[in-house]
Amino acid sequence: MPRPTRPAPSPRTRVRRLPERAHYDADTIAAIVDAAMLCTVAFQLDGAVHAIPTIHWREGGHLYLHGAKASRMLKALTEGEACVTIALADGLVLARSAMHHSMNYRSVVVYGRFEAVTEPAHKLASLRAFIDGLYPGRWDTLRPITEKELNATSVLRIALDEASAKVRDWGVKDDEEDLDWPVWAGVIPLRTLAGEPVTEPDSVARSVPPTRFG
Amino acid sequence: MPRPTRPAPSPRTRVRRLPERAHYDADTIAAIVDAAMLCTVAFQLDGAVHAIPTIHWREGGHLYLHGAKASRMLKALTEGEACVTIALADGLVLARSAMHHSMNYRSVVVYGRFEAVTEPAHKLASLRAFIDGLYPGRWDTLRPITEKELNATSVLRIALDEASAKVRDWGVKDDEEDLDWPVWAGVIPLRTLAGEPVTEPDSVARSVPPTRFG
Ligand SMILES: Cc1cc2nc3c(=O)[nH]c(=O)nc-3n(C[C@H](O)[C@H](O)[C@H](O)COP(=O)(O)OP(=O)(O)OC[C@H]3O[C@@H](n4cnc5c(N)ncnc54)[C@H](O)[C@@H]3O)c2cc1C
Ligand SMILES: Cc1cc2nc3c(=O)[nH]c(=O)nc-3n(C[C@H](O)[C@H](O)[C@H](O)COP(=O)(O)OP(=O)(O)OC[C@H]3O[C@@H](n4cnc5c(N)ncnc54)[C@H](O)[C@@H]3O)c2cc1C
Ligand code: HEM
Ligand code: HEM
């Protein structure tokens, strides 16, 4: 990856450790958000810091979450600042020296405040985008969602504005004098793959739908 | 999985949403910590909440981290409370209704304060355990670590005492009256696998070492 083409959006998002791995452009950030399905959302509540794993999806310049209207996490998120973290493990990097071992990765850290998506048409469209983004075309084939289900669900979003990405995507660095040390040096890629689907015994439909995961 | 066999270790670790998915026993927690390589560490600094992805490993009842002695994250962690989050995505759960879609997962949330591992023999033994835990037997084959490298590195650990696990590991739940809706219902498992290793062009050793990932 080339060096960052634009500056950090705020002082606190400026990557200080290994800043040559930083990216602040919206396209790099969006691509990492889309490649991941899970994020961790950190927030402050009752004087303590909490960090909770959750599914996310992206629409334009926002990252979206969903859950129970009664959830502590979702309530806390509209009342204070949050930090959202996404990390993808792309490879194990094995060097000749212990210290130069590393990982290839893509990560994003976002600061800001979530807002609730309450406007009914927007909320419905977002839930449709969530389902269809994972399983193309699925929304229209499902048992239609009810008012009661919609009312029990919260949808929140945060702007991907105060965000940074950090990426490592290359081979092994070792000290010059260690290059002929007789131990294997290289990268072992890691990938998340879909396995064999398990159809429910009582599923009337038997053919597995396509997913974003191939 | 059976119901939790012991109570939450503290009021704030008691899982309130879907508590039937909670586990508080040390063995369940340790197994999830070991199955994951990455965690997210959340901490408070300068009035804001930060959450940073990092590698972890476990020794007994502690989760360990490493990084630069000069790192903001590692410095902040010994000065205040932290929350560590681990999440593994095990499967996509597709239901007949939108709302009953879900994921199979294993997650852990830990609260507490990190302590620095500074005693030289303990620190060295921990870094060895870190490398050999990923790549059995590798430490002894590496270019030996130097004093300077050890001095530049911090190792921190947190007790897995104030911790909870949450697990979903089964099929599809749908409302009774939706069971014959003609759309596929089932689980698509997800797995992270090691791909084809990429040997460095200048690696003297050409045979790939074993890893914990098979
Ligand atoms: C898969 C993975 C594994 C990692 N393992 C380790 C490890 O074992 N040890 C270790 O020290 N570090 C590890 N890192 C790097 C780690 O995430 C931090 O970048 C690093 O520890 C420096 O943290 P800091 O708070 O001191 O950074 P600083 O550079 O001081 O952070 C300043 C700001 O930069 C941004 N930033 C920092 N890190 C990231 C990031 N990863 N992604 C996007 N924005 C970021 C945030 O806005 C942050 O507030 C790992 C990263 C990933 C993705
Ligand atoms: C892979 C994955 C995807 C998820 N996706 C979603 C989603 O899209 N929407 C959603 O609402 N929820 C999701 N969850 C569940 C989420 O992590 C929370 O459990 C849930 O949102 C309730 O949060 P809360 O803060 O309101 O919980 P509460 O039950 O009030 O939390 C109380 C305490 O229980 C413990 N706890 C809570 N959650 C967890 C956990 N996951 N693991 C271990 N301990 C925990 C913590 O100690 C926490 O402080 C997902 C979980 C995983 C692992
Ligand atoms: C045991 C010997 C090791 C030592 C002494 C060591 C030392 C360090 C140090 C000092 C840093 C901070 C870099 C910086 O912020 O400037 C660091 C970061 C890191 N280490 Fe290690 N490390 C060791 C093993 C490993 C192993 C085995 C892995 C991979 C499995 C690894 C993965 C990483 C990663 C991913 C980072 C973050 C780099 C970044 O910010 O982009 N390290 N390590
Ligand atoms: C679009 C329609 C959807 C609606 C209305 C909906 C609604 C909800 C609600 C209300 C909760 C909170 C449960 C609770 O805390 O009591 C929840 C949690 C959750 N949802 Fe959804 N959901 C939808 C789609 C999905 C999809 C497509 C997935 C999977 C990809 C999913 C995965 C989850 C997960 C993993 C949880 C957490 C359950 C737990 O805490 O163990 N949801 N959802």
TrEMBL record, chains A, B:
Gene3D superfamilies (UniProt xref): Electron Transport, Fmn-binding Protein, Chain A
Organism superkingdom: Bacteria
One Pfam family per UniProt: Pyridox_ox_2
SUPFAM superfamilies documented for this protein: FMN-binding split barrel (SSF50475)
Descriptive protein name: Pyridoxamine 5'-phosphate oxidase family protein
